[in-house]
Amino acid sequence: MFSLFSRRLYLRIWLAVVGGVAVLTLLVGWAWRVAAEQNIQPEVPQGRELVLRDSAGNTLVTGVATRIPRRSREEGVELQIEGEDGRSYSLQFGPRPPRGERPPGGGYRQDAAFWTRPPFGFLWMLGLVGLAVAVGVFPIIRRLLGRLDVLQRSVQRFGEGDLSARVPVHGNDEVAELSRQFNAAATRIEALMRSHKSLLANASHELRSPLTRIRMGLELMGTGQPAPAFRAEILRNIAELDQLVDEILLASRLDAHEADVGTIEAVDLVGLAAEECARVDADLDASTDALEVAGVSKLLRRAVRNLLENARRYSQGEITVVVRRLGTMAEVRVCDRGPGVPPDQRERIFEPFYRLPGASERAGSVGLGLALVRSIAGRHHGSVHCEDHVGGGACFVLRLPLHQGSGVSA
Fold first, then answer.
1. Which residue has the higher pLDDT, 333 or 93?
2. pTM of the model
């Protein structure tokens, strides 16, 4: 029995409420009874007309009664009567009897039933009140704390591996807030686990492809076929494999927010973009000579390089990079003249290993470049999105907060 009460919070709260109400009721009843006994005294007229008659009905005194104050109740009660004849009279009552005694003809009825006379009648009343409180409070507390049972079962299911377990949210109290926080945490954990599973599945597939091509190249080289072409193919696949492993490791470090990915410093975004544009022969349009942002230099360079390589892979014309200040943000726009991105695909292309239909066989595309750009932007409290390019193609817009010590006004 004790273990049952120790495991059930609602039973302990119910017992505490019932016990507290019972003790409070007893104390109040005891104080009420004592006060009632102390205040029992003869009915005394005060400031009212008083008439004294004899047994024959003859009027002896007619006047107005006034109570004379006494120092204590043990001295009794005295009334002063001002008669209509101008004379004063005094009427005295003796002191009240000791507690527990009642004068003849006063106090409690002696013919009342045993269980209705004090103190038993009062105890019966307390018992009925206690029973009503116990019966009425239990369903209320059980209903209130029943949500804790639901929360406990949901947490247990989640801990056993059911990541879809959620808690119904009712009301706005502490239990509802706890349920909302649990649901939010469960959603984040489920998304993280789904992302990791997808990363492992896609990484296994992407790693298998270059390894298969390398193995086939080695087998063909063993047949005496011309080696230079096979050697070049093997080297290209090794480079692709190395890039894939590097991007997978970087994606894992970016997902683990506690991982150290570099030192935060002031980075000249214009200079960085100019170097990367020169590498891929892209046009740079900068509205200022310097635009500093706070971040990890190698990560920001990786983000700009991934956007440029993505544009070069799909573009059928020139690539334009625009760097400008936009309020308190620095903006890098990488625009190409490729086929563009359908509106319903502009969010999905930032998912790991996702590629547009028909683009899976393009050289160098492993489906992690844009996902890394979004992760890097998020690490720097920025954002990245895709939009249409006027005249055809797509524009990828990377926005990062300006460095506070750059001296650039908002």
1. 333
2. 0.51
